[in-house]
Amino acid sequence: MHLNQYIDHTLLKPTATEDDIKALCEEAVHHNFYAVCVNSCYLPLAREILGATEVKLAAVIGFPLGAMATEAKINEAKYCIKQGADEIDMVLNPGWFKSGRHQQIITEIKSIKSVIQKGVLKVILETCYLSDEEIRTACELCLEGGADLVKTSTGFGPAGATLKAVKIMKESVGDKAGIKASGGIRERETALQYIKAGATRIGTSSGVKMMEE
């Protein structure tokens, strides 16, 4: 099992500088991580550094709250794809979800998936706001919308990933979608536990540390 191929090497802090992003991309190439994940303003820079390497380029949209208009998310997705993003990590609208606006959530996911076409769409549930039953329902909506992966957390909410949430997500999506565990995963051993629980991708800023452990 090659842990490096599960890792989305991530830097989403608002204070991240150009030098930080350069270092992130160089580390990803050095360790052959699956992808780097950045805010959209840094896509041109990241694309330039990654060049023709095999490392995929992921960007977040509707981040970190998920509460912006669908049209805003769609335009963000269009920009990201135009700038060379292979993957999009979008935040599900938690307020809509809690209001029972499930059809609108499905429509939003479908709209973004249609924009990115062959690109990979991960939908962030922000599981810390959801009950076990709500996690199951959210996973069903993501499948209906055509998401490729469901993701636990932004890393900017009150709590990050939990093994319990990942197990529920795995029960819900089975083999119909991948699962990305992210938010607070900093140790190699922890990452391996998440993979054992069903995660197919790990979002972390501690990838280098994991490789060194």
Give a description of the structure.
The protein is an alpha/beta fold and 213 residues long. The chain has one domain (3-212): TIM Barrel, CATH 3.20.20.70. 45% of the residues lie in helices and 17% in strands. It is built from nine helices and eight strands. Helix 3 (70-82) runs parallel beside helix 5 (102-116), helix 5 packs across helix 6 (132-145) and helix 6 crosses helix 7 (163-173). The longest helix is centred in the middle third of the chain and has 15 residues, at 102-116.
Features:
eight-stranded parallel barrel; TIM Barrel; 9 helices; alpha/beta; globular; single chain; 45% helix
Number of helices: 9
- Percentage of residues in DSSP E strands: 15-25%
CATH superfamily: Aldolase class I
Number of domains: 1
User: Mind describing the biggest β-sheet?
Assistant: 8 strands, parallel, barrel
Radius of gyration, whole Å: 16 Å
Gap from first CA to last CA: 15 Å
Poorly predicted runs of 5 or more residues: none
Protein topology:
Blueprint: E1 7-11, H1 18-31, E2 35-38, H2 43-50, E3 56-61, H3 70-82, E4 87-91, H4 94-98, H5 102-116, E5 120-124, H6 132-145, E6 149-151, H7 163-173, E7 178-182, H8 188-197, E8 201-204, H9 207-212
Parallel strand pairs: 1-2, 1-8, 2-3, 3-4, 4-5, 5-6, 6-7, 7-8
